[in-house]
Amino acid sequence: MTQLRALVTGAGTRVGQAIALALGGRGAKVAVHYHSSRTGAEHTIEQIRAAGGDGVALQADLSDRESAKRLAKDAVDALGGLDLLVPSAANFERVALDDVDDGHWDRAMDLNLRAPFLLAHGCRGALRQSKGSITFITCSSATVPFRNHLPYTVSKAAVRHLMRTLSLDLAPDVRVNAIAPVTVLPPPNMSEQDLALLTSRIPLNKVGSADDIARSVLFLLDSPFITGHEVMVDGGRSVAGFERFV
Q: Among 113, 129, 137, 139, which one is most buried in terms of CB atoms within 10 A?
């Protein structure tokens, strides 16, 4: 059986790490991208190998256009091809509308939207050759916006449409889907009050885990007749229609 080859961005920490480890458990060879978390990336690779897979660490600042383009080439070269791309790295800045400036907007668009596009564009040849797939990470806020996160929310909504458009442009060779979590691994600066409020507005009355996202990546990997779809992994928040998050 041919070894799965995958590129996961932001795989040195949090959700990206969980996705890389889940793929490693399938015996995949994973290009573990990191920006500054080299130690985390190396630890991820150790765990991947312990699970029966293999990995290579690749550093890139995805907010930089040329660095993002280079990562696509480096990953394909290091893996000898590519079967799966998962652009997981993202920024999540809380900012009131009156305080949004060029920096907030550019940071969200550069990392959350432009980098996933450049990676998909740069990897498209290898993915076409392997009949591979792309799984973007969007957010439930693309459907039910969060207050005080306008650049982030808009960037994730744009990623959803990027996914839908690429699913047409890359068909029939490459499947393109997305996973839309509600808050997973809440940021350490989130107050207990805000976390409790968020949790109360999720029908399953809990926030998600990184493993919930990783399992969904495997689900889409194993679903050869699904393309152009966003899988909501949000405990029901998107269908509940609750008041926007504070």
A: 139
Q: What is the layout of strands, in order, in the sheet containing 175-181?
A: 54-59, 29-34, 5-8, 84-86, 133-137, 175-181, 230-233
207 alpha carbon, distance to own chain's centre: 17
Buried b (16+ CB within 10 A) or exposed e, 116-146: bbbbbebbbebbeebebbbbbbbbbbbbbbb
**pLDDT reported for residue 155:** 96
- Could you tell me the two tokens for 209? 């885990």
Mean pLDDT of the chain: 92
- 81: region left, alpha or beta (phi > 0 left; psi from -120 to 50 alpha): left
Closest by Cα among 30, 132, 146 to 96 = 146
Tell me, what's the pLDDT at 245? Answer: 43
Supply the pTM of this predicted model: 0.93
Radius of gyration of the chain (CA): 17
Domain coordinates of the chain in residue numbers? 5-240
CATH superfamily of the 5-240 domain: NAD(P)-binding Rossmann-like Domain (3.40.50.720)
> Any idea which residue has 């991947």 for tokens?
48
Give whole-number Cα distances, 22 to 26, 36, 46, 72, 85, in Å: 7, 22, 13, 21, 14
Place of tokens 């998909």: 120
Q: Distance from first CA to last CA of the chain, Å, rounded? A: 49
Catalytic residues: 152
Residue range 160-169: average pLDDT?
98
